[in-house]
Specification:
single chain, 151 residues, mainly alpha, two-stranded antiparallel ribbon
Length: 151
């Protein structure tokens, strides 16, 4: 099963955007992410609806972060993306009358619900500012060694 990497991609794009003084075009962001500009526009549209980014049209246009980095959590971004499934593990529902299947599904549902609640709680505690600070530390350490990665 293919994993949904939109949250990771959005975080990647937002950290690049946070490093820029001006807007970034969908084409530039697509290059950073190794994807198509149409995918960037669609994904950024969700973030615009949530008030996290804005877009400017025209020659000098592009995407900008609208919200304060310290106020945007990973959970808000996850929600803005439509709350994609957290796990690829799922229940078998081919014979719902089967008591074994019912027992297995109950155990899986409870465990996955607990894991998802814990993950969402942690997502609520991590902000874009936290990630930007971590990136800045890593970037400074690499630059100090004389190799520049990440921008």
């Amino acid at each position: 099963m293919k994993r949904d990497s939109r949250l990771s991609s959005v975080l990647h794009a937002l950290l690049h955007m946070a490093e820029q003084d001006g807007p970034m075009t969908s084409e530039t962001l697509a290059q950073c992410l190794g994807t198509n500009p149409v995918v960037v526009r669609r994904t950024m549209g969700y973030l615009r609806e949530a008030g996290i980014v804005t877009s400017d049209r025209g020659h000098a246009g592009g995407w900008r972060i609208h919200a304060d980095l310290g106020s945007v959590t990973l959970r808000q971004l996850h929600e803005a993306l439509g709350e994609p499934a957290m796990f690829a593990v799922g229940n078998r529902n081919e014979t719902p009358e089967c008591l074994v299947e019912q027992a297995v599904n109950a155990a899986l549902e409870d465990t996955l619900a607990e894991a998802e609640a814990l993950l969402l709680k942690r997502f609520s505690e991590i902000t874009l500012a936290d990630l930007a600070a971590d990136f800045a530390r890593r970037h400074a350490a690499v630059r100090h060694k004389g190799v520049d990665h990440g921008l």
